[in-house]
């Protein structure tokens, strides 16, 4: 459905000046038309221009819009979701450019964590991870690419749910293709990228793409620290300084899986449900501070491990483990060997499952970086890998390599200098334009080896 003919909700206007952005539940832009379920997945329901800002306060000089589009939930039912799409300032109109789908680490249930809210000027979302990822999005824009940043958790904040983050990411790509101001078309080359919770969402998108959206030309996907085994992470993080992650993920999963919700209601105390409700209301960093050291054993009539071992709950935990089908496109996976949040063994297993299913995976294990640091230190390496896929260059070998740091090569060193300069531009609100020689324009590509 072309953006020009999209229905318009009365009083839905772009953010202007320093006005505070409204939360999604208070913003009529997020409400789909009554008949939206009759439209194909990826159809644009509504569009508006928006201003982006770092931490809601430092305006970013880029060109951005938001698209409300039709997608599907885990049960196949029609849903509406929002993606934020952007171009570098002064992008050439009608250029045949590339598209990067960036899945943020939403890692929360609260709508303050949604990228469509957290990235906007006037947002009050202190502690929302997407705000920390804005420099990474800016790097893609500086390379001249169009970017789509979907709310892959949906309106219900379904953090950690299987498959449907992939549906939302892929339908956001479809919507972006149909949004004329981006200058895209059905044959546009697309890449997927995400880190941590966004890496998990990217893995789901990569897994379901061949069946769900076979028409998309997805040339590669980068999954940074993609969790690997959420159930193992629940048990490991419970009672740790990072216990907030397991608490909020359980709170999100019970919204999508009735069997899990029933088990939690049966074995959880009243204090336990109060705890989950509290987690649902907080941004990611705020809930980490609030729930540090919390042990769910103290809030249940039986042990938390015992609850997770019950057959109905095990079926849910098995469902949310990625890696059961081979993505059709090549993948780059990066992971810290000593990551304090995501266990390298879980990601090792994730990669092994992909390879056993027949996927082409290059896996880089970094010895020095902790979790958040690897997001930024990995930017040049991951972006260069994506650029090479866009240009149709030969793939690096599909093997595992453990290195001291993925930042320590000549090519990446130059990239870090450029990225540091870009971060300075983001911090000061200077224009984000395509770098000279990096117009992001599609060139004729030779057939990549992975397609032969």
Question: How would you explain this protein's 3D organization?
Answer:
It comes from Nocardia aurea. This is Lipase family protein. It holds the Pfam family LIP. The strands form 2 sheets. This protein has a 10-stranded mixed β-sheet, sandwiched between helices. A hairpin with a 3-residue loop joins strand 2 (53-54) and strand 3 (58-59). Residues 1-18 and 443-452 have low confidence and may be disordered. The protein has 2 domains: 3-229 and 331-441, Rossmann fold, CATH 3.40.50.1820; 231-319, 434 Repressor (Amino-terminal Domain). Helix 3 packs across helix 16, helix 4 crosses helix 5 (197-212) and helix 7 (243-256) packs across helix 8. The chain is α/β, with parallel strands linked by helices and 452 residues long. It has helices spanning 115-118, 129-132, 134-142, 164-178, 197-212, 230-237, 243-256, 258-267, 270-280, 284-291, 304-309, 311-319, 344-357, 371-377, 379-390, 410-428, and strands spanning 44-50, 53-54, 58-59, 62-72, 78-88, 99-103, 146-150, 189-195, 217-224, 331-336, 361-366, 400-403. It is globular, with a radius of gyration of 21 Å. The protein contains 16 helices and 12 strands.
Keywords for this entry:
Rossmann fold; alpha/beta; 452 residues; two-stranded antiparallel sheet; 434 Repressor (Amino-terminal Domain); 10-stranded mixed β-sheet; 16 helices; globular; 37% helix; disordered C terminus
Distance between the termini: 34 Å
Assign a percent range to the helix content.
Answer: 25-40%
CATH architecture of the largest domain: 3-Layer(aba) Sandwich
- The CATH C-level name of the largest domain is Alpha Beta
Shape: globular
């Amino acid at each position: 459905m072309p953006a020009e003919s999209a229905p318009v909700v009365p009083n839905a206007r772009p953010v202007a000046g320093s006005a505070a952005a409204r939360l999604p539940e208070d913003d009529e832009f997020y409400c789909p038309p009554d008949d939206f379920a009759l439209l194909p997945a990826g159809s644009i329901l509504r569009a508006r221009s928006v201003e982006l800002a770092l931490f809601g306060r430092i305006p970013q000089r880029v060109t951005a819009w938001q698209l409300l589009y039709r997608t599907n939930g885990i049960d196949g039912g029609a849903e509406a979701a929002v993606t934020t799409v952007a171009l570098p300032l002064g992008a050439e109109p009608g250029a045949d450019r590339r598209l990067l789908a960036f899945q943020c680490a939403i890692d929360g249930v609260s709508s303050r964590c949604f990228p469509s809210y957290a990235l906007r000027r006037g947002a009050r979302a202190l502690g929302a991870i997407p705000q920390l990822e804005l420099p990474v999005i800016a790097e893609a824009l500086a390379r001249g690419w169009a970017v789509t940043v979907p709310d892959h958790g949906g309106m219900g904040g379904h953090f950690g749910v299987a498959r449907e983050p992939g549906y939302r990411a892929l339908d956001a790509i479809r919507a972006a293709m149909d949004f004329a101001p981006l200058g895209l078309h059905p044959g546009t080359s697309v890449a997927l990228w995400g880190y941590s919770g966004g890496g998990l969402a990217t893995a789901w998108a990569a897994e379901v793409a061949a069946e769900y959206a076979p028409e998309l030309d997805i040339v590669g996907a980068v999954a940074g620290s993609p969790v690997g085994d959420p159930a193992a992470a629940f048990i490991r993080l419970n009672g740790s300084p990072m216990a907030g992650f397991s608490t909020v993920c359980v709170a999100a999963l019970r919204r999508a899986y009735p069997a899990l919700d029933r088990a939690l209601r049966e074995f959880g105390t009243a204090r336990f449900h109060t705890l989950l409700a509290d987690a649902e209301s907080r941004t990611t960093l705020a809930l980490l501070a609030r729930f540090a050291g919390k042990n769910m054993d103290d809030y249940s009539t039986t042990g938390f491990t015992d609850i997770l071992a019950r057959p109905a709950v095990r079926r849910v935990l098995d469902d949310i483990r990625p890696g059961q089908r081979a993505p059709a496109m090549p993948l780059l996976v990066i992971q810290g060997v000593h990551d304090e949040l995501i266990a390298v063994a879980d990601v090792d297993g994730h990669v092994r499952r992909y390879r056993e299913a027949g996927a082409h995976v290059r896996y880089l294990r970094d010895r020095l970086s902790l979790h958040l640091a690897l997001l930024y230190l990995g930017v040049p390496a991951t972006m260069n890998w994506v650029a090479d896929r866009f240009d149709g260059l030969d793939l690096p070998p599909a093997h595992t390599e453990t290195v001291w740091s993925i930042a320590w090569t000549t090519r990446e060193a130059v990239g870090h200098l450029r990225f540091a300069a870009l971060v300075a531009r983001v911090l000061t609100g200077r224009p984000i334009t395509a770098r000279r020689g990096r117009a992001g324009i599609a060139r004729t590509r030779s057939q990549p080896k992975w397609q032969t």
